[in-house]
Structures are given as C-alpha cells and as structure tokens.
C-alpha cells in the first residue's frame, strides 16, 4: 500500500490513534478526511494539519453515516483508502448491576455495524482505484476478552472475523482492494497494566519469562511493547516484534507461535 498521494478517510480522528495516524499521513502528502463526533476538537486538530478536512459524524446514527457516505461520494470521489478506527468502550461487568443493554448497543453500533455499513457503501468507490485499501482497527482483545470491557472485546473479535471474511470475499470477486486488520501495540496509557507489571517483576526462572510463551501471551493480549526480558521502559517495538525478536506479519506473529510452546 502506497503511503503518499492518497485520499484517506479516517474515523475516530479527533484524538488517540486516529489523530496520530491522521498526522502521519498528512505529513506524507496525503489528503486526510477526518471524521468524528467530537466536532469542536476535530475542527481544532484538522486546522493544524496540511490538506485535512473535518466531517462531523455520529456512527451510532444511521442518518449521520448515510450523510457521510453521500458527502464522500459527492465531494471526495477520489477516495482510495478507508481507515475505520472509531471505537466505543464502556467499563462494566456482565451479570451484575452495572450491566446496561444500552452500553452494548452503542458499542456494537459504533465498533461493528457502522464499519460493515461503511465498507459496503464505499467498496464501489474504491473498486475503481488502482491503489485501494480498507483498514480496520481491531485489538488483541479479539482473542483474549477483557471482562471489564466485554462488549468491546466481542466487537473486536467480530471485526477481526469480518476483516478475514472481507479479504477472501474481495479476492473471490476479483477485486484489487486490499483489506488490512490493524492490531495496534500497547499504547502509553496501558503500559502499566497489571499484566505488564507482573511480567516485569517476575524472576528469570518464571515460566512466563520463556521468550516464545511470553511473546505469544503479549501478542494475544495486545501488549506488544514489552520485551522478552520483561523490560517495560524499552522503546516501542514494531507490531509482532516479540518472542523471536523479529518482525512478523499484521496478525501479530501468531504463525510463529503455532508450534508447541517450550521453555
């Protein structure tokens, strides 16, 4: 996938991963269409970037999503990359007084339904481009759910499966559109998670210090920035650069860890 000269739609672009991606693509001479429901923050951030457009959209609102689709088709028909990054997460426990069905509805609509709707609506636009791609942001929680974020974890699992199915469906259709499943590494906000702290304090003989086992575990939980020596203050590593100390594919090196794990 080329990294310059594109027109890129990024959802969830007012903050976090979406904003940082928008900044990087803007620096590489791409036109960046930034979409988010936090319109004031979105406009402020878009104004700082070169060749950026801000579009307000609430992905839980079907009418808003349809308006975004029509705006893209009418005003940005040169679109060739769609990066679906927006996500909602609520902290609650299943089968408890904290459970609220509205939380689940909001997360499912934002994290999954909106992405399915956008990919299907924009596939005809991308199909006419030589260099076209969909990118969806998933998570290691697709494989190991977090009980404090049950619906969020489920939606990431669903989105990961959707990405795999879409890649095969587009290939079967004869489409040249690429479909990427992005699993970001551990961010600064999560570097001091309980798992990270346990691993950093473990003795050298602890089973979790096995490079391959530790690499697989970190991969599955999305904590790719912890080195196999347990260090948590090391510079960020490339996605999948754990366990064997080499870079693997966008599936976080799962193929490297498919063999039986030994010490």
For the largest beta-sheet, the strand count, sense and barrel status come to: 6 strands, parallel
Rounded Rg: 19 Å
Poorly predicted regions: 189-263
The second-level CATH architecture of the largest domain is 3-Layer(aba) Sandwich
**Element order: H for helix, E for strand:** EHEHEHEHEHEHH
Tell me the count of domains: 2
* Percent of residues in helices: 25-40%
CATH top level class name of the largest domain: Alpha Beta
Q: What is the molecular shape?
A: globular
Provide the residue-averaged pLDDT: 78
The side-by-side strand order for the widest beta sheet comes to: 3-2-1-4-5-6
Total count of helical runs of at least 4 residues: 7
Q: Helix/strand/pairing class, anyone?
A: alpha/beta
Give the terminus-to-terminus CA distance: 38 Å
What percentage of the residues does DSSP assign to strands (E)?
Answer: 5-15%
At the fourth level of CATH, the homologous superfamily of the largest domain is: NAD(P)-binding Rossmann-like Domain
Total count of strands? 6
């Amino acid at each position: 996938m080329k990294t310059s000269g594109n027109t890129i739609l990024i959802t969830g672009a007012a903050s976090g991963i979406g904003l940082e991606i928008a900044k990087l693509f803007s620096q590489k001479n791409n036109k960046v269409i930034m979409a988010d429901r936090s319109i004031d923050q979105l406009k402020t951030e878009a104004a700082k970037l070169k060749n950026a457009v801000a579009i307000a959209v609430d992905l839980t609102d079907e009418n808003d999503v349809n308006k975004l689709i029509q705006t893209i088709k009418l005003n940005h028909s040169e679109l060739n990359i769609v990066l679906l990054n927006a996500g909602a997460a609520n902290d609650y426990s299943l089968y408890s007084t904290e459970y609220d069905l509205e939380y689940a509805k909001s997360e499912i609509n934002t994290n999954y339904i909106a992405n399915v709707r956008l990919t299907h609506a924009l596939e005809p636009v991308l199909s006419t481009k030589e260099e076209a791609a969909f990118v969806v942001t998933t998570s290691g929680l697709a494989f190991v759910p977090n009980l404090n974020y049950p619906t969020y974890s489920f939606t990431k699992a669903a989105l990961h499966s959707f990405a795999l199915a879409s890649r095969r469906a587009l290939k079967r259709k004869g489409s040249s559109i690429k479909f990427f499943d992005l699993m970001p590494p551990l961010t600064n906000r999560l570097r001091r998670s309980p798992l990270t702290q346990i691993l950093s304090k473990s003795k050298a003989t602890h089973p979790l210090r096995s490079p391959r086992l530790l690499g697989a575990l970190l991969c599955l939980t999305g904590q790719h920035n912890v080195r196999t020596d347990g260090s948590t203050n090391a510079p960020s590593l490339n996605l999948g650069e754990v366990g064997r100390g080499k870079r693997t594919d966008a599936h976080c090196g799962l193929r490297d860890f498919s063999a039986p794990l030994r010490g």
